[in-house]
Amino acid sequence: MTFGPGQSLADAVTAATAILRDAGVPSPRVDAELLADHLLNVGLGRLRAMMLGDAPAPEGYEALVAERASRIPLQHITGVAHFRYLELAVGPGVFIPRPETESVVQLVIDHVKGMAQPRIVDLGTGSGAIAGSIAHEVPGAEVHAVEFSPFAHAWAAKNLAPLGVHLVLGDLRNALQELNGTVDVVVSNPPYIPSEAIPNEPEVALHDPPEALYGGGADGMELPTAAAASAARLLVPGGYFVMEHAEVQAEWIAAMLGRSGSWTRISTHRDLNGKERATSAVLADQTIRNERMGQ
Question: Binding site for S-adenosyl-L-methionine: which residues?
Fold first, then answer.
């Protein structure tokens, strides 16, 4: 089926689904419906009800479908990414948050449950998805976020300002020196892709900013290692660190944290797909750290 004049909404969505499937879009039916709803703004439930009748296809729908078929990310077309309970503004220059990162946020929320006013830092916030979700879901939390890219920082500022997050433009390696030794939780989803590993998905390879993907060095571990070092600098003794990573990097990151002598209770966590998605650790007190380093 193809697009045609005077086409019904149902037929247009069916045609769009076929076009997107042929283009290799991973979720063609869902994307076809979301593009239609972007124009109609009625919600997916109402949209699907309208498709049972003779509602007409919205004007401009074919053009949006053509953009998505060219593998422009859906979120760049709609300008919105949904993450946990938030609707985030996104576009060129910022990493689009992924559903698997929602489980990393949950680890933080579970850890600070019962704490009156936890101080939490998000290193490499991107769109602000992690920091914003924590601020939204943990009443009383003092949340700080760091972003290096001016483009991503601009998107994060738009998303985080209404949530009261303190956002700084800076390098996760040395930002927030004024908070050294005072933070309860540090969370990070740093770039971690190796320099020569080009992502398979065109949406990622062509549209996510390189500075949000590649972690530095042949193994991609420069920035994750730096994030761990900054976490050790920022946290109070007994403070909690959790970092997202690729499934294949779990063992390496746990070993890296162990070698540093700064961490105890190192644990790997699986996402909803069963993949080893994050590693957490607790900062040892100074006496233990000195003993481990032979001082």
Answer: 124-128, 147, 189
